[in-house]
Amino acid sequence: MTEHPEQIAGYTYGTAEATASPLTMEDLERLKAVVGLTKEDQEALVEAAGILADQADDMVTAYRDGLVELPFMRPYFGHPDGSANPEYGAASKPRFDRFIIDVCTRPLDQDWLNYQHEIGLRHTRAKKNATDHADSLDHIPMRYLVAFTAVVIATARDYLAAKGSSPEEIDRMHAAFTKAVMLHVTVWTRPYVDAADW
Amino acid sequence: MTEHPEQIAGYTYGTAEATASPLTMEDLERLKAVVGLTKEDQEALVEAAGILADQADDMVTAYRDGLVELPFMRPYFGHPDGSANPEYGAASKPRFDRFIIDVCTRPLDQDWLNYQHEIGLRHTRAKKNATDHADSLDHIPMRYLVAFTAVVIATARDYLAAKGSSPEEIDRMHAAFTKAVMLHVTVWTRPYVDAADW
To answer: What sequence ranges are listed for the domain Globin-sensor (chains A, B) (predicted)?
Structure first.
């Protein structure tokens, strides 16, 4: 089960502690248009939330089980020598679990922009490790952030199918989830790139 | 129908004209691992190629029909004022069509790395417009390149389903296609980002 958001340490969604995003609502509207996120997709995401909510913890566990298999990835979430850091893992997991639900349910507004920018920063030298006082490598290369999206999207289908929805419903939810995840990850890349190039 | 690669103007795959990639084969192996691309996925991609090959032209037409609906996107492929540039569209389309097939069939080797880097550069100030002598805006913001991946991935399912494969085969091909597309787009972002951050 995922925790109630107010109980998640470091989860600053909708608070003044989240960094102000440099993006405008017009920037967001354009990104929504480019990923192709429609009103129908947003309705499908509400359905998806109902199906994924109690699987979010399992989904994130599966992501991490995959990443820990890759020795070169371990220093980003373990200690710098690649050894495990269970405290950091435990501290950051509820926020990652919450992300699965937020992807499907959060209104795309200024609070959303701000917290997505905060998440982006927490992957880079600007804020990595600060929230949980961890000693992992202080920057996740952008290529791994973008590339891992494939796993999140490709594996989502089985979770979306787990509650007996029709193939058509699963298709709709999976397409909407794909667009929503890409929207989030795109915004997370903002801190990595010069404004004029991003 | 897609043209034979040697007949496609500006398609420098496997030639000395494609830029040398700054990435190593080890970088590529790591990215393959992070997107989760397995041997089974690569087999599924061969199947996908058989299904998508004669639909590639329609797929790219559909992408472009979507993008032309967005006025703020038009100056990147039309003239700078947003008016249509059919010559540029016609010149670049066979390469884009060919991408659909290449995603599914090309061995992931040094030629692949080099040509993907070339594609990345052709989205940025380094090489945008040069191949086709176009006057469009000279840089596609990275956010649109990444965000639009959602459309390519989400819409692929119907094309993969168009030849009567079983739901399980479609799932396998769609997951493999998702990983392969994300691998490509990830490498295309290299020219946008400082090496130390990418």
So the answer is: 25-196
Q: How far apart are the first and last CA of chain A?
A: 36
- pLDDT at residue number A179: 98
Q: What digits encode the pLDDT tens for the residues B89-145? A: 999 999 999 999 999 999 999 999 999 999 999 999 999 999 999 999 999 999 999
For the domain made up of B23-192, the CATH class stated in words is mainly alpha
Question: Which residues 39-98 of A have a C-beta within 8 angstroms of B?
Answer: 66-67, 70, 72-73
> Chain A residues with CB inside 8 Å of B71's CB?
none
Enclosing H/E stretch for A93 = helix A86-105
User: Could you give the ipTM of this predicted complex?
Assistant: 0.97
Where along chain A do its domains lie?
Answer: 23-192
For A69, which residue in chain B has the nearest alpha carbon? B33
CA dihedral over B131, B137, B139, B141, signed as positive or negative: negative
Asked if A198 and B185 come within 8 Å (Cβ–Cβ), the reply is no
d(CA B120, CA A193) in angstroms, rounded, equals 15
Out of B36, B143, B167, closest to residue A151 by CB: B36
Mean pLDDT, range B170-181, rounded to an integer: 98
Residue B176 has pLDDT above 90, yes or no: yes
